[in-house]
Design brief:
six-stranded antiparallel β-barrel, about 475 residues, 4 domains, 12 helices, Rossmann fold, 20 strands, alpha+beta, six-stranded mixed beta sheet, Immunoglobulin-like, Thrombin, subunit H
Length: about 475
């Protein structure tokens, strides 16, 4: 009866607002309620009786109409017997595949499925709600509430459902850094406290779903757009204008079609922080320690150093006033990755970047060698100046001694051999990193050839010989 009243209300609202009864598909998206199924799973306990289940069912239905109005069309039923044990005790283990095998019609026809579990514990009842989005097949984190007063069970159960609910929209178009989103049931929202409300400044998580010809998702056909988020910038008619922040190129490229759906779920961070893990690329990733992580809001140019990754290649990222942060991964001053992130949305996120340590090692060695070269150049010039002053003063013996000391200095051949040996040791499997390493060694070789002329020793020896001959009696 409640469901019938809601449909009547929607129809009446459409007529009052001047919409025809046969709404076009575009308008149906925004003027149709979320169809929500709630599976109630109660653990085996004396306090968890059929009467309590009936009270919870009635309470959820009544509260949903009061709080969400026409936005929600809620149906509460007992959890299927095949899943009731896991749903009641370990709802985090229930998979979308299990739902698909038991009730495929829910994933095809409805918007949301909630597992609502009740367990009797020493301190009272524990109510847990977990949402499955039927279009994206994505589970949201558990929302748990503890109840010590039996009369509050129905209210707390509804509160858990409301907190676990995640509104979503459909990405109509995306080009460059702009996207347009239409929010589900947006035309039915009449209050600012509606659980389905999306406002300016909210962050959305884009999900790409690719179907087969029967409308079923392909294997691995549902994927979150990697390192991509939408920030709601404002409303234009029935459309929400969004700014795209992405660490990828053309992350939302392509058009929505009969077989491809581009959806966007509201980002609702539930964790206190997110651990960012930096690893090398490849089949056997290795943690990268000491990599610096910087953060800045999308609308700012001021980056803040958050810290460096630890021995596990991890750094804890805490939420900030702006939910969306742009993270920059640097090593030795070189930018390796740009990563939009909503801290607290997930407990752990992992990114594989180029192992820049070989380049950094090569850079450190080359800089040290270049300093040695410059120091050697200065010392050679000092020797040459002193040598020629001794020749001017006819101090042949002192000039002879300085020439021998000059010849004992490192020369181009010595340093070039050391450079070649080091170049053979420092290698990278990444082509771009190896190119940078090769360029470092090439620049240093040019420095050797420019400032360390091996002919200088012979030239000084000839000057000394001429001075010796000039000093001999004829």
């Amino acid at each position: 009866m409640a469901s019938s009243r809601k449909r009547t209300f929607v129809l009446a609202a459409c007529l009052l607002l001047g919409f025809p009864c046969n709404l076009p598909a575009q308008a149906t998206w925004e003027y149709s309620p979320y169809t929500i199924k709630v599976w109630l799973a109660m653990d085996a306990a004396a306090e968890l009786t059929p009467a309590l289940a009936h009270r919870i069912q009635r309470g959820i239905t009544e509260r949903a109409w009061v709080v969400a109005g026409a936005v929600w069309d809620v149906t509460v039923t007992p959890c299927p017997a095949e899943l009731i044990l896991d749903a009641a005790r370990r709802p985090e283990l229930v998979t979308a595949a299990a739902i698909q095998s038991l009730a495929p019609e829910i994933l095809k026809q409805d918007d949301k499925l909630f597992l609502l579990s009740l367990r009797d514990e020493l301190t009272g009842l524990t109510v847990t709600a977990r949402e499955l989005d039927c279009r994206t097949w994505l589970w949201q984190p558990l929302v748990t509430r503890h109840v010590t007063q039996p009369g509050r069970v129905a209210d707390e159960a509804f509160a858990a459902l409301r907190d676990a609910f995640v509104p979503f929209g459909r990405i109509e178009s995306a080009k460059g850094k702009e996207a347009v989103v239409r929010v589900r049931a947006d035309g039915l929202i009449v209050g600012e406290t509606s659980p389905a409300r999306i406002t300016e400044g909210d962050v959305l998580v884009p999900i790409i779903r690719r179907n087969d010809r029967l409308g079923e998702p392909l294997a691995n056909g549902i994927q979150q757009a990697p390192w991509t988020f939408l920030t709601v910038a404002g409303r234009r008619g029935t459309q929400w204008q969004c700014q795209v922040s992405s660490g990828m190129t053309s992350a939302l490229g392509g058009r929505t079609s009969a077989r491809t759906m581009r959806l966007a779920l509201l980002a609702k961070p539930r964790e206190n922080a997110t651990e960012l893990a930096i690893q090398t690329q490849g089949d056997k990733p290795v943690p990268l320690s000491g990599y610096e992580i910087y953060s800045k809001p999308p609308d700012s140019d001021d980056a803040e150093l958050l810290g460096a990754t630890d021995w596990r290649g991890r750094l804890t990222i805490v939420p900030k006033p702006n939910p969306l942060q742009i993270l920059y991964v640097r090593n030795g001053g070189r930018l390796l990755a740009r990563l939009p992130m909503v801290p607290g949305l997930e407990p752990l996120v992992t990114v594989q970047v180029t192992d820049d340590d070989p380049r950094l090692f090569a850079e450190g060695y080359v800089k040290g060698l270049q300093n040695r070269i410059m120091d050697l150049v200065v010392r050679r010039e000092l020797y040459i100046g002193r040598f020629r002053r001794h020749l001017q003063k006819k101090e042949i013996d002192q000039a002879q001694r300085l020439l021998e000391e000059f010849r004992s200095l490192e020369n181009r051949s010595d340093l070039s051999r050391q450079l070649d040996q080091q170049a053979q040791r420092v290698k990278s499997s990444d082509r771009r990193v190896q190119t940078a390493i090769d360029q470092l060694f090439t620049d240093t070789r040019q420095l050797l050839f420019k400032f360390l002329d091996p002919r200088t020793s012979n030239e000084l020896a000839e000057e000394l010989l001429r001075a010796q001959r000039a000093g001999q009696p004829s």
